[in-house]
Amino acid sequence: MKLPKYVQGWVDREGRSHHYFRRPGYPRVRLPGLPWSPAFMAAYEVAMASGLVPIGAKRNKQGSVAAIVAAYLDSTLHFSSRAKTTQAQWRAMLERFREQYGEHPIGSMPQKFVTAILAKKKPHAARNWLNALRALCRFAVEQGLMTQDPTQGIKMPRPKTDGIHTWSEAEIERFEAHHAIGGKARLAFALLLYTAQRRSDVIRMGRQHIRDGVLTVRQQKTGAELAIPVHTDLRAVLDATPGDHLTFLTTRSGRPFIPTGFSQEFRVWCDAAGLPPHCSAHGLRKAACRRLAEAGCSANEIAAISGHATLREVERYTKAADQRRMARNAMARENAARTTTVKVSDV
To answer: What are phi and psi of 105, to 5 degrees?
Structure first.
């Protein structure tokens, strides 16, 4: 007799039959009665509907830090739905957290324990750790393993820094002077500067993404889909650069770049142009936003190109540019008003 899927059976020495539900990754369940009987099929349906066993659950003590980290990292709804870059960063952090404190019960973790961990980190790292631990603790609360979130109310001050350096016009001109149009370095530079996208998006762009003068981008980090008109300067670089691959940018072996590999190559190009270490690929994204602000674009217009999820981030990128533009416009109006006053008084 054919058994239902994932069911294994055998007969013992006394002639009694035994049947078990054995599906990879799922709990092992003994099924009562004879195959296809009502009692058997009822238990079978329950077993089929049961959830996957989280990775490492069998070797982790229930309710421990190790067990909840394993369950969280295996959660499609809470973890796998996040951006790939966030997943990689948080996984590394939470694995370290599990290695150090895996045997401790998650339910008794006090807030002072979290603040002590964060106090040992540098400002940027502390903020990232807080985000990862907060997501873990909220998951534990939902699972009934914590009565309250110990990260609730913890706030990390923003580091007193402008973050990644924004390229100046002098630095942009220096790169362009060293790397001529037609080469890979200038192509990468133009894609970054004239699309205002992250490296992870630029390395996936290809000619198939351009139609009727519009470049379509689905951002890897946010999932946002953008339609960006191709800048005339970018069009000139694309037309002058040969290529027959699916992506504009490829390695020496003709394969698409990975983000870290692209950053390393871009660093080589910057060094060749004599640019300082603070000039990075992401700094060109900021320079693109600065240029748009200086051209009089609103924060909403800039975000339509850059794909920033919040206007606060756009405003942070363009704060200096906005100040210069508004000061210049204000002074121009003041000068115009003074000129008019003088002419009237002279008549």
So the answer is: -75, 130
Closest by CA to 7, choosing from 35, 26, 33, 27, is: 35
Q: How far apart are CA 166 and CA 293, in angstroms?
A: 13
| Per-residue burial over 79-96, b = 16 or more CB atoms within 10 Å of its CB, e = otherwise | beeeeeeeeebbeebbee
Residue 85 to residues 24, 91, 163, 289, Cα–Cα distance (Å): 29, 10, 19, 22
Separation of alpha carbons 47 and 29, rounded Å: 7
Across all residues in the chain, what is the average pLDDT? 87
* pLDDT tens figures, 22-64: 887 677 888 988 888 888 888 888 888 776 555 555 456 788 9
DSSP 284: H
What distance in Å separates the CA atoms of residue 19 and residue 32, rounded to the nearest whole number? 7
Question: Could you tell me the pLDDT band of residue 174, with boundaries at 50, 70 and 90?
Answer: very high
pTM for this predicted structure = 0.62
| CB-based contact 318:299 (threshold 8 Å) | yes
CATH topology of domain 57-142: DNA polymerase; domain 1 (1.10.150)
For the chain, domain boundaries: 7-46, 57-142, 169-326
Burial label for 215, CB within 10 Å (0-12, 13-18, 19+), is: buried
In this prediction, residue 347 has a pLDDT band, given cuts at 50, 70 and 90, of very low
Neighbours of 172 (CB within 10 A): 17
Residue 214 has φ and ψ, to the nearest 5°, of -125, 130
Tokens 């906005």, residue located: 322
Both tokens of 25, joined, read 């990754």
CATH code given to domain 169-326: 1.10.443.10
